[in-house]
Amino acid sequence: MRRVRYEVNGGPEVLFVEDVTAPQPGPGELLIDVAAVGVTLPMVRKVREGSEPVALGGEVAGTVTALGEGVTEFAVGERVTGLCFGHGYAEQAVLRPAMTSRIPAHAGFVDAIALVRSGMVARGAYAAGRPEPGESVLVTAAASAIGTLVLQFAKAGGARRVVAAVSSAEKADFVREAGADEVVVYGDESWGEPVDVIVDGVGGELLGPAVRALSAGGRLVAFSSGGGTIEAYDLLVGGKSAIGFQMAVLARNKPALYARWLDELWELHAAGKLRTTVAATLPLEAAAEAHALIEARRNLGKVVLVTGQA
Ligand SMILES: NC(=O)c1ccc[n+]([C@@H]2O[C@H](COP(=O)([O-])OP(=O)(O)OC[C@H]3O[C@@H](n4cnc5c(N)ncnc54)[C@H](OP(=O)(O)O)[C@@H]3O)[C@@H](O)[C@H]2O)c1
Prior knowledge:
The chain has 9 helices and 15 strands. With 310 residues, it is α/β, with parallel strands linked by helices. It has 2 domains: 2-103 and 277-306, Quinone Oxidoreductase, Chain A, domain 1, CATH 3.90.180.10; 119-248, NAD(P)-binding Rossmann-like Domain (Rossmann fold, 3-Layer(aba) Sandwich), CATH 3.40.50. Strands 3, 4, 5, 6, 7, 14 and 15 form a 7-stranded mixed sheet that branches. Strands 10-9-8-11-12-13 form a 6-stranded parallel sheet. α2 (109-128) crosses α3, α2 crosses α8 (255-270) and α7 crosses α8 (255-270). It is globular, with a radius of gyration of 19 Å. The two termini are 15 Å apart. It is an enzyme of class 1 (oxidoreductase).
């Protein structure tokens, strides 16, 4: 089978395709024929900035072809999506049942990649800000796969004002289409009227202006892989809060809530109430192009690799 790998950390050019023997599922694992793979900023960062090469894992979707010893949750032939901890940029991948779920009949593999992980992070990060109907919400990286979904949750949740924050004014039309009432660019002198909740997918140097943009009592949800520092004094003044959110913690600590939210995601999707946007669908061989697209911050929505096995 074909898979994408790299041997030295660096830019997208370090990625290459190789032919290798297909993996076998161990006890408690399942094997899938991969149809679609999600390309995400955290993985792009690991390739560029990591201290050593890692397997290009992450979100994959495909058809179950074999079950390891003891796996009873899934059957061969079922269409599933899940988080892969080994090699995921590949024609076949190994998953664990706990982080795998079925794809409903109405949806395709690319839909699953655009919806499930991004949608769960969007739902969880939005809820972590404890938004009340009638409050205002600002979303950074608003044109990203997760950001476009947070905009929709905020709108559907009755936010009085939904503000999209993006790195370039070129993304304005796209985020308005996704539900934003106002658009600000990070470098703008002011981000407008202070907001009650900020859902931040950027971090780093953006945390300062983000905390300043909060109203008194406002909450900032930090869920990005961008790091950064918040001064306690800046929170104290105005009685503001910073809240961390990580989907893996939610999945591990609150499995029943995770399962309910996952069902709700698919119901909203089936009813046309939650729209995913796919920025690019590229073949596995074009993984470097997919990484370059995200590094250049040009993606509007989800970047997906496909193997041709859909
Ligand atoms: N907490 C969790 O459980 C969890 C899980 C998955 C992902 N995440 C985080 O969620 C954030 C958004 O992920 P995603 O999958 O929605 O992103 P994505 O679709 O891959 O898009 C990445 C977007 O992030 C923005 N961005 C911010 N800093 C960037 C940088 N240094 N380089 C390139 N792009 C940058 C860009 O939009 P602008 O140029 O408009 O800023 C870009 O379009 C990421 O920070 C990711 O680490 C968190």
